[in-house]
Amino acid sequence: MAPTTHLLSLLLLPRAPIRTRRLLLSISLPTFFATATMSTTTTTTSPPTYPVRPLPTPPSSFSPPREPLPRIDETKDSDFYSQPRFVTHIDDAAISRLRNYYHWNLWDGAPENQGSGSSGEGKKQNKRKRRILDLCTSWVSHFPPDMETLAVSTASRDQGHKAHSSDEDAPGLEVIGLGMNEAELNANPILSHRTLQDLNINPQITLPPSSSSSLSSSSGLDATTCVVSIDYLTHPLTVLRSIHALTRPEGRIHLVVSNRCFPTKVAGEWLRVSEEERLEMVGRYLWWSGWEGVEVVDLCERGGKEMGMLERAFGAGAGDPLWVVRGVKGGGGGGVGRTEL
Predict the structure, then answer these.
(1) pLDDT more than 70, % of the chain
(2) How do strand 52-54 and strand 221-227 relate by DSSP bridges?
(3) How far apart are CA 162 and CA 166, in angstroms?
(4) Taken in order 41, 45, 46, 47, is the CA torsion positive or negative?
(5) Pairing of strands 221-227, 292-298
């Protein structure tokens, strides 16, 4: 990749990602120059109803992609992400919907529409410290207020180096952040651990030791989140297999997808396919990496007037669309990659 091309990408995309359409890159001016404001909308008091649909098993004609996936800009990601971006990469309405989704599906570990967040099982799970990996994280993780409060408290307690031994096994939320910019990671208050790692150079993930004696290495991750970043990975299958191996049985992974990106840094295929095809692509990543029950949760905003084709193409008056492609690790803990394909 020529240095001139890389320099242009830095100049043209200094702060926030742009919307992508099939064979079309369109800029939404109000969010192109994004600000550091975030939604403070509270979570709903009852489980929302999200449209959920399973993704089919990839047909035999589909083979796993050869890694690394090619991109327009193959220069070092450490250079591209060297300057901190204290902005949000989806709009406030999308952030609010994501926080609500996390509240009902991530923290309580309950499938949406079931309302089991208040069940006995959910309460039992909350009696122990839980570990969540926030992959490709930044200065904010978009967790709901209840999770943020507990995670900040846990991080503060953990970083106190066992000032009170009785606190080691207290209920808590241990969030492990893995990202590319040290200043952004240091600014995220909910992180108990911060790992600076370029997954496109080293796609194998290693978890830091937990401060809680109740969390042994066999406990693994309860969940993994990744917000609008799966498209930047050049070794997505290797990364997702690594996470699968570190996840406890019945643990989940939540890959959040929108239509914003830095186009020079995403996998080339991402720019050539439709939004629906992107969701299927991410679903295939999960399936090939050993995850089960792969499905798409539609968090797109509803209730407004139907937009015309040109409005949709250029993003006029449209909030950021949002989906979660998710999977679960089987109870037996097997299925580390579908090597038969």
Answers:
(1) 67
(2) unpaired
(3) 8
(4) positive
(5) unpaired
Tell me 267's DSSP state.
B
Q: Are 88 and 140 in contact (CB under 8 A)?
A: yes
Of the CA atoms within 13 Å of residue 173, those in its CB half-sphere come to: 26
Please, which residues bridge with residue 176 across strands?
133, 193
State the chain's mean pLDDT as an integer. Answer: 78
Q: How many CA atoms lie within 13 A of 223 on its CB side?
A: 19
Cβ 243 vs Cβ 254: under 8 Å? no
| DSSP 8-state assignment for residue 60 | T
CB 266 within 8 A of CB 16: no
DSSP SS3 for 178: strand
- What distance in Å separates the CA atoms of residue 86 and residue 77, rounded to the nearest whole number? 18
- Structure token pair of residue 32: 């192109």
Least Cα distance to 37 among 92, 98, 93 occurs for: 92
Backbone angles phi, psi at 31, to 5 degrees: -110, -5
DSSP structure class, residue 71: B
- Residues near 15 by Cβ (< 8 Å), separated by ≥ 6? 32, 33, 34, 85, 87
Q: Is 228 left (phi over 0), alpha (psi -120 to 50) or beta?
A: left
* 221: enclosing H helix or E strand: strand 221-227
End-to-end CA distance of the chain: 32
The whole-number pLDDT of residue 337 equals: 53
Mean pLDDT comparison of 16-20, 117-121, 192-196, highest-scoring range: 192-196
What is the rounded CA–CA span in Å between residue 154 and residue 1? 44
What is the CB neighbour count within 10 angstroms for residue 237?
A: 22
DSSP 11-30: HHSSSS-EEEETTEEE--HH
pTM given for the model: 0.80
* pLDDT of 333 over the 80 cut: no
CB atoms inside a 10 Å sphere around CB 54 = 10
pLDDT digits (tens, 9 = 90+) for 112-157: 333 333 333 344 444 578 999 999 999 999 999 999 999 999 999 8
pLDDT band at residue 211 under the 50/70/90 scheme:
low
Residue 294 scores a pLDDT above 80 = yes
